[in-house]
């Protein structure tokens, strides 16, 4: 069994605020002011979206490099949504500065459905919690 990622959060003195450490990287997590936080960093669902779109961007760039395809500059954006019935979903949008052929557009959408984080989010994930 391989550890794919390891991240730790340390509580800060401000309510809802924490310092997230992953390897040599540090980020701040917080809640928006509308939820009583200081809005000093990403909220938990922002991290989920960030993981998804980061993986999408990296996977597309790796594919393009491997196939010798020039995708040019592009952005990936995601919204985490929920409705009153308790359904949750993510809407992901890609915008390419350069136009893509219809064939390449279809390939990009196919690749997006197969990124590692996409696949993780689409299947049920077991979470084991313990006090140490």
List the quaternary state of the chains: single chain
Radius of gyration: 18 Å
Strand order across the largest sheet: 1-2-3
| Average pLDDT for all residues | 95
How much of the sequence is in beta strands?
15-25%
Judged by helices, strands and strand pairing, the structural class is alpha+beta
What gap, in angstroms, lies between the N and C termini? 21 Å
What sequence of helices (H) and strands (E) makes up the elements? EEEHEEHH
The domain count comes to: 2
Query: What's the CATH class label of the largest domain?
Result: Alpha Beta
Number of helices: 3
Write out the CATH superfamily name of the largest domain.
K homology (KH) domain
Low-confidence stretches: none
InterPro entries: KH_dom-like_a/b, OsmC/Ohr_fam, OsmC/Ohrsf
GO molecular function, one term: peroxidase activity
EC number: 1.11.1.-
Keywords: Oxidoreductase, Peroxidase
Summarize the SSE layout with pairings:
Layout: E1 8-11, E2 18-22, E3 25-29, H1 44-67, E4 74-82, E5 88-96, H2 102-112, H3 116-122
Antiparallel strand pairs: 1-2, 2-3, 4-5
Describe this entry's structure for a reader.
Its EC number is 1.11.1.-. The structure is a single chain. The chain is an alpha+beta fold. Helix content is 32%, strand content 24%. The chain contains three helices and five strands. It has helices spanning 44-67, 102-112, 116-122; strands spanning 8-11, 18-22, 25-29, 74-82, 88-96. The strands form two sheets. The protein has a three-stranded antiparallel β-sheet, with no helix packed on it. Strands 4-5 form a two-stranded antiparallel sheet. A hairpin with a 2-residue loop joins strand 2 and strand 3.
């Amino acid at each position: 069994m391989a550890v794919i990622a390891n991240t730790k959060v340390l509580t800060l003195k401000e309510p809802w605020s924490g310092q997230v450490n992953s390897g040599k990287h540090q980020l701040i997590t917080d809640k928006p002011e509308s939820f009583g936080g200081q809005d000093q960093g990403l909220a938990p669902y922002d991290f989920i979206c960030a993981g998804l779109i980061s993986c999408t961007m990296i996977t597309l760039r790796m594919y393009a490099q491997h196939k010798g395809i020039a995708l040019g500059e592009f952005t990936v954006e995601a919204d985490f949504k929920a409705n009153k019935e308790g359904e949750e979903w993510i809407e992901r949008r890609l915008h390419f500065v350069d136009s893509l052929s219809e064939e390449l557009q279809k390939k990009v959408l196919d690749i997006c459905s197969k990124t590692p984080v996409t696949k993780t989010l689409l299947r049920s994930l077991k979470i084991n919690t313990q006090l140490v």
